[in-house]
Amino acid sequence: MSPAQGSSGFFRRPQPIKPKAGQESVWEYPRPPRIEPRTERVIVRLGGQVIADTTDAVRVLETSHPPVYYLPSDSFTAGVLVPAEGTSFCEFKGEAHYFDVVAGGVVVPRGGWTYPEPARGFEALNTRVALYPAHMDSCEVNGEQVTFQEGDFYGGWITTQIVGPFKGGPGTAGW
After folding, report:
1. From edge to edge, which strands make up the β-sheet containing 49-54?
2. I need a labelling partner for 126 at 20 to 30 A (CA). Which of 1, 70, 88, 105 fits?
3. Is the peptide bond before 72 cis (omega within 30 degrees of 0)?
4. Looking at domain 39-163, which of 3.40.50.300, 2.170.150.40, 1.25.40.10, 3.40.50.970 is its CATH number?
5. Is the pLDDT score of 38 beyond 80?
6. How far is CA 86 from each of CA 65, 76, 113, rounded to the nearest angstrom?
7. How many CA atoms lie within 13 A of 48 on its CB side?
8. CA-closest candidate to residue 71, choices 42, 99, 92
9. pTM of the prediction?
C-alpha cells in the first residue's frame, strides 16, 4: 500500500509540506490551472548548446503539480524545434502539438509541446513551447538548475522555491 492509500485502498490527499518563507506549496495552486507571467531568466541546454534563453516565460500552476514553464517560441535557436506527429488533449488547455527537440547531435522525440489553438483562458500559450526538463541537459531558472517532475507524462520544473509532495511518481495517479 502506498503512503497515499488508506487502509481501504482508496486514495486520499497526501499531507502537503509546509512552505518556508519564500517558498510555494503546489497544494495551494488552483484547479483549473492558472497562467502566471515570469521575468526570471530561463536557460535551456541540450546537446551541449544553449537552445533557449528568455526572461519572458509563463508558468502554468495546477494543484499538486510543479509549475510547467512555457517559453516564447522565438526564444529557441532556429532549427531546434521540429514538428512531430501526434497530439494529446488537456481538459483545460486543449489540444497539444509536439516537437522533437534537436541540438548538438541529440534528438529528444516529442520533447516539447505547444497549444496552437488553446482553450479560452489559456491564449497566452499559443506562441509558447514547454519542454520536459528530464530530457534536456539542463533547465535553469535564475541560475538554479531545476529538477524534474517524476513520471513520463508531466513536465513540471522543481526549484528550491517549490514544495510538494508532487504528482507524477509511483502511487500518485489517484491524486
Report:
1. 49-54, 42-46, 138-141, 144-145
2. 105
3. no
4. 2.170.150.40
5. yes
6. 24, 21, 11
7. 2
8. 42
9. 0.91
